[in-house]
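EI: anyone free to look at a 331-residue chain?
SC: sure, send it
EI:
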Amino acid sequence: MAVDNHHRIWRDGKFVDWEDATIHVMSHVVHYGSSVFEGIRCYETPNGPAVFRLSPHMRRFADSCRIYRMPLTYSIEELSKAAVETVAENDLPHCYLRPIAIRTGEQMGVLPHDTPLEVFIIPWTWGTYLGADALKNGADVCVSSWRRPAPDTIPTLAKAGGNYLGGQLSKMQARVDNYVEGIMLDSFGHVSEGSGENLFLVRDGKLFTSTISSGILHGVTRDSVMQIARDMGVEVVEGSIPREMLYISDELFFTGTAAEITPIRSVDRIPIGSGKPGALTLAIQREYMGIAQGTLEDRYGWLTPVPSRQSAASTRKARREPVGDMSASAF
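SC: here you go
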């Protein structure tokens, strides 16, 4: 059964209907890819919906704007509040949130001179990113012929729309060759990440992952996994990973807000370990999902509860604030 995703969208301080969240074809973003965005999960918990690691996501959103010289006029706190209100406004038990800042306007030319910046927060009902079977049994992936950008080309620490063009090519190539996903190497030939996921490797009880200098996005889920693993007593090693280390790893898994913790069972048709999700991967997956879904103690303070629509409206009324209104403050 198809999911109706025609929810109300936060647009620069006001909620608008789905069909009204439009931009002009001459918008700068359409021609030059000038957007930055985030992906944030809101989970259904026993105590109601809760947004996972909201503040770090919004901080990265603000960082991406700064890197691309986009004049963001909302603070991290205001954006976080808007995200919570977006979930409440749509009365969603769970969802994926897509904050996005785009250069609009009606002009031609690469230079975004006096180009308006519009900010949206879009709620989307989304299930498993790489498929339920991959989440449970592991994904079959390949090493892509497409690489991540070199350090002096585009800033990969920014989560920018244009940065994902290479990932699109990698993903399409993988699917044509009957793989679920592609693993991209960096410009030096070392392991980087997937088209939209970070990557972890297990070897002799240690957890390995590429450094942020390997063309990866500095993932919030990646950071969560590293904290969980260290608290389990697992040594986490950040460094350069040669391609061939993938084939001799004991376990391998993707991480990401959309992908969550997705095991990898083969790379280039070579089975990883026993060809099934490994013990450490599953232990981290259980811990991560347990915290996110509220079935385990939120000992890190990662969850931001979402009040009911009625409660959120009452709070706004008490404060004499219109629905979704955000006063602009300098970033």
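EI: The first strand starts at residue 9 and ends at 11.
SC: 👍
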